[in-house]
Design goal:
It contains 8 helices and 7 strands, in the order ααβαβαββαβαβαβα. By secondary structure, it is α/β, with parallel strands linked by helices.
Length: 251
């Protein structure tokens, strides 16, 4: 039995409590009727605009890049952590910078792989009600107050997503990408699901329920590439990137 006097283990995802520090996202999304607060909401547009400008200026320098997502709770002793390091190392050797959320777990593993490959390692950090430490493998660290600004940077400056096992935030990025691809907002954008056993239940539900009931087309399943192999993930992204470049430069 755990000693009740022992300190609680640290978690990168602490539940929100009334004592947690309110964030700008929280303030923006809070429902209010006070006219004074409504006026403040209008002024937040300038802060949001400034955050977009700063993000565009910083991110425009990173070149070809891949964004990597996954659980902040994945430790270095987890085999998936090592697989992530190897995947991003290979992507780096292939010429891609690596973008993550800048925190621990899979984000740290991805940035570590970028560092090993000698390519730019980028962290797009988000303000949270609890402090999330940035990892030690970042060359570029950009702080965002608003999730929607940060998500724009991931999609705009990455040419592919690699999705490792994760929680709600990871699923959010996954389905954001799929929605944008399906609706033709972005094109030639590979999405890799790494870890077939982790994603199998979700994929079975998508095919057995969403496709079966006609909520999506069976062809939409091709938007995802599932693998357990760092080399396969890298080769798939490199091939799609090459095909895209050939189409762009075709006379």
């Amino acid at each position: 039995m755990r000693d009740p006097q022992a300190p609680k283990p640290e978690s990168s995802h602490a539940p929100h409590t009334p004592h947690a520090r309110p964030t700008e996202d929280e303030r923006l999304l809070e429902s209010v009727e006070d006219i004074r607060t409504i006026g403040k909401d209008a002024w937040r547009v300038f802060r949001i605009m400034g955050e977009f400008v700063e993000g565009f200026e910083e991110m425009s320098q990173i070149g070809h890049a891949v964004a990597v997502f996954g659980s902040a709770r994945t430790g270095p002793d987890d085999p998936i952590y090592g697989a992530c390091v190897e995947t991003t190392r290979r992507l780096g050797k292939a010429g891609f910078s690596i973008i993550t959320g800048g925190g621990p777990g899979i984000m740290e593993a991805a940035n570590q792989g970028a560092r090993l490959a000698g390519v730019k390692s980028v962290g797009c950090n988000i303000e949270l009600p609890f402090e999330q430490r940035t990892n030690d493998f970042l060359d570029v660290s950009i702080d965002f107050r608003y999730f929607f600004v940060r998500k724009t940077m991931f999609v705009k400056y990455a040419e592919a997503f690699v999705i490792f096992p994760g929680g709600f935030g990871t699923l959010d990025e996954l389905f954001e990408a799929l929605t944008l691809i399906q609706t033709n907002k972005v094109h030639d954008f590979p999405v890799i699901l790494f870890g077939s056993s982790y994603w199998s239940g979700l994929l079975e539900w998508i095919e057995g329920t969403m496709v079966a009931e006609g909520k999506i087309d069976r062809r939409d399943l091709a938007l995802l590439h599932v693998t357990d192999d760092p080399a396969e993930a890298t080769d798939h992204i490199v091939r799609r990137h090459r095909e895209r470049q050939e189409r762009v430069h075709r006379p």
